[in-house]
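Repro:
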Amino acid sequence: MSFLKSKGFKYFKNLLIGLGASAVMLGALGKINSYPWGGTMITVGLIVEAVLFAFLGLIGPEKDYYWEKLYPGLDAYNSQVTPLTAGPQSSTGPRTLDADVVEGRLGGMLDELQTMSKSLGSLKALQEVDFSETTEQVKSMHNFYTKMNDAMASLNETVEDTKLYQENIASLNRNLSSLNSVYGNVLGAFRQPID
């Protein structure tokens, strides 16, 4: 029975299950695509899987507890760790666990669990926050920024138009000044007496 609990057997069992499942999948693919080997492959894979599942049903499920993290030395199958209530043993006897060390570890685990509980409470509160209006607000802000960019572009065009307008007004003023001086000369010529 110890062979069934060994790491090597567990690895071999998982390898066979994986290979059998792969054969079934490849057979199904071959059958779906009407390949000549599809029927044979799916038959072989299903037989391997049937034998494996029958064997797994006979040996029963394996319990996997990870107590070796709390009780060092338990990861060996035949380890001899005495329970905390058994009291200290001799140096030649099984290994004993110091109650203070275990209590300290349990206290640390309790603190971690309380911290995790608070964190989960915060996450639950965050989950209950209603973000339904946030999407609309983001869309509204996007529209605002789009319109602001359009307005800035129009303003930039307006500045360019204003500069062009100022240049045209300055040119018009120069032309009017020239016309005024010509008109003044013409008027001055009419005012002079003719000899």
